[in-house]
Amino acid sequence: MASRIIKVVSRCRVYPQVKSSMGDFKLSICDIPLLTIHYNQKGALFSSPPFPPSELLTRLKTALSQALTHFPPLAGQLVADSEGVISVTCNDFGVDFIQADGSSFHVADLLRSAGGDVPKWVKECFPMNGVVCYDGLFRPLLAVQVTDLADGVFIACTMNHTLADGTSFWNFFNSFAEICRGANRISGVPDFSRHSILVSPVFPKLPPGGPPPVITFSEKYRVREKIFKFSNESILKLKGLVNETIYPPENVARKPPAIISSFQSLCALLWRGITRARRLPSNEKTTFYLTVNYRHRIIPNLDPLYFGNVILSIPITSTAAEILNGDIHGCAVLIHEAVQRQGHAKMQKHAADWERRPEVYSPGNIAGAIVLMGSSPRFPMYASDFGWGKPITIRCGPANKYDGKIAAFPGGDGDNSVDFEVALAPETMAGLESDPEFMLYVSPF
To answer: Is the pTM higher than 0.90?
Structure first.
């Protein structure tokens, strides 16, 4: 029997339809630290379009060329000046466009894989695997891969993370889709301004002409990746429990509106379940990192479609005993209070700290006690209709995967459900799958 593989069929460069008039694009204090992580990889699975693959490729290339006209930095390159300061030159360098054949796989192979784990072959649906953002000095800042399945198509986008966070990533992806389905103009016009406390003349010292500090996790480290789905009904039940515990029935007269959000409740459920599954000593510290959008938190507020990274990964640290002892509400309160503390003053402090000691990230989970929540169920991922219907599901590529990395997606049914793509060491994943508290709220697919 022939092996089932994803095979690259063709590769070309796509350029903006209109030459860029934008000058150099400065990186901010939220962009620069990401030079040492992998490119951001997200992809959408669709049913097969009602036209032949050759027409699909033509439509996608044309739409991509038009979309790049609206997003000049993505078609540019990273450049370093004589002092090693890196910025983006909008020089129409172009982006990679790859066609791949995955006709030995079906949509059902991705949706209903053995054990519910994300199939290993899915990573081959993404371009530029293992590429670090610093490599944007030599390689395109964006790549799109179209993989034809037996009964569907997977469209993946790999984007240099120093240019864009999730908000900006999905604005580009949805603008690309909007143009492909026939729009004359994009509805989400990006804001490329660089006038805020995020801009600094200070840049970390990187080895001139050489690689930056290495990524602190190995791509060969074995993790299991699995999708856990939470229905709207299940989420409301959990949120109700968390807030009822804080404001019990006897205090109902003084009970304010729910203060712990649905997402914070889910984060607490995951943190507790993973901490239990890891069997950490009671006095060992564990940290939950939550990515927070600052566009509306700094003063003056940034445009909601400000293009770049306006995120901080906030650490919430406690001991295993404090996380697991008692009910879930204690853990949820820790997360809620940490989010409530985020505001302009926090970003001011971050900017001041950067001026004193600018640093790039050292991603990974060396201590084995970290959980990092990325992406967001608020991102409009299912708005990416390229002309024949919305996606069936969304997946991440293999970039930046290590024990404890989680990505949150909106559910595909438009019913306020949430999906989590969880990467854990195999023994930890087995423990989470058998955790009664956690599995009580997980919904079947």
So the answer is: yes
